[in-house]
Every structure is written in structure tokens, then in C-alpha cells.
Amino acid sequence: MRTWSDSPFEATTPLHEVAARGAVIAAENGESEVIYECADHPGWLVKLYRPDRRAENADVLARLIALPARMPAADRALIDRSVCWPVTRIVDGAKTVGVAVAKASPEFYVPMRMISGGTTTQPLEIDHLVQADPEFYAQRGWEVPGPAERLAVARNLAAVGAMLERYDVVYGDWSYANALWTRGSGRIFVIDVDACGISERPWVESKAWDDPCVTPGTRLTVRTDRYKMAVLILRCLTGVRGPDLAAAYGTLPATVRDGPLGDALRRSLGAADPNLRPLISDLLALLDSATASRLAQGPADARRLEPPGERRPHKRRPSPRFSTARLVTLVIAVCVTVLILLAGAGLVASLFS
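Given the sequence above, the corresponding C-alpha cells read:
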């Protein structure tokens, strides 16, 4: 897997140096005109922007690209492990026309059973986790995510959110489609970071995710991210989607709902003043505590959840078998017993003749 730390690019890269296209990943998607794998740099994606992209973003993008260089090693390792961080601005003359980012590794893709009966490989999005109907998973040939798996994904998303919050980086678009995850480990890969702002960013409309304390069209801040991250955590933990957050909150286990994590989520979602929302780092600490508590319950609750198709077959006990020596001994014993019986029968016959 490619990472920010092993980027082969300089801070800016002329378009002609990455123009050779490999596989096209997406076209006319959001603010991008096309996303393709760079033929000259396998494992790296080139994302070319639509011509009408805001000019203000070029300077912010340059600052984002440089940011990990001044982070401590732990934060940089988190980026390398879990974030599709931009590594170079692609320029055409003086204009920023795109960005290069790492391609998600194969672990974030899963086989999906199609209605036709065949299978296809698709990225595993948060959208596939926030599902409460077991039939959704049955139709695709997947196991239903368990509590430990959901908790791991929520915790790892909060870790990235808390890291961004520390540097006043505003993601603004936490949603179902902007992060990938893996079965079993719950590892995550956050995408579209090149659209982030620093201190603030332009309004992003996202139905069922919009901050009720922010007027549509207002620029977003980390306080908005605190609300959206709480929504994301709640939906990951419960699988319940839709605008009725109270309904999702009500499905949390009572031990969670009535504990510190449930209280923090309630305050994040219901605070009339955005300044009163818990920090994302506070939510992360509570998720870490919940993870430690689950691990302490024992291997039955903390075991790794096996991805579909990797269940170990049940081991049958081997049936008892006689060795050759035991078989010979048994045969001799039977023969001796028969001879004794025959001898006894002859003695009895002679006595009564």
C-alpha cells in the first residue's frame, strides 16, 4: 500500500509527467473530472478537478500536502495507515488542476454476490456497515457485522477525526461514502482529504448529516465536524440510518446509552451551542475505553471476526483405532478362551458317559 511517507513526488508535479493513464477509477464524480491510476507510478491515483473548482483551494491544498512533515511520528503513522492524504499538487502551468493520492489496498475490497449469481469486487464503504437489516448482508454473501467489528470501525474513524481536529483541519463531509473499512480488523481508509479546509472550509450539503446549528451556506469548522463525527459513530455502532437520530440512539445497548459514551454522543448531537460539544478526542477516549472493556470480557467477545469464506471447519474428534499389537493380543486371548472352553466341555462329557 502506498503512503504519504513513501511518495515519489515533489510538492508540485507537472501534468504531463502523470498524464499516462492506467485504469480509470471514476469519472465526473463530485468535484473531480476523472480519477485514474498513473501508468508511470503504479499504486498512485491522479485526480483531475473540474475546471470550475474554487481557486482558493490551491493554497489550502499546498498547506495540507506539507502538513504531515511537521507532525510527530505517531500522527504521521496514522496518516500512512488510515488516510488517503494528498501528496502532490498537479499543475498545468500556474494552475492547480489536480492532486495525486494513494490507491486503497486490496484489503478494502470485497467480493460481492450479484443478483445474476456471479460475483464482483467492490470497495467496502461505511454505507455497507450502516445497515440494520440482516437480509442486506445475506443477499451479498457477507456475514452480519458484530458489535466488536462495529466498535473497531467507529474507534478508528474517531482516531482520524481527532487527529484532524488537533491540526484544525476541517473535513466537513463525513458521510457513508468517504471512508472504506475492512472486515474483521475494522481498519479504515479515509478518502477525499484533498477537499479539506484549514480552520474552515466551504459549505458541503449532505442530507441527514447537516449540522442543525449551522445555517446552510455557512462555512464549516471543526465544531461542525464534531457533530458529524458523533452521527457517524452512532450509525456505525447501531447500523441504523436515516434522519431520526433519536431512533438510532435508542437502539444502543443500555450499558452504552446510560454510560459515559452514550452521554457524550447525546451532548454532541443535542447541544444548542456547538462550543459545548465534546471534542472528537473525547469520543475517541471513550471508544478506547469501550474497546478495552470488551477485550477484558474474554476471548468469546474479543475474538477476531472472520471474514466471509474464511470460517474454519469444525474439527471432528478422531475415532479410536486399534494398533496392530493390540489386535494380535486380542486374537490370542480369544483363541485361548476357546481352547479352555473346549477342554472343559470334553471333561464334562467324560464324567457323564
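The chain has eleven helices and twelve strands. Try to locate this feature in the C-alpha cell string yourself.
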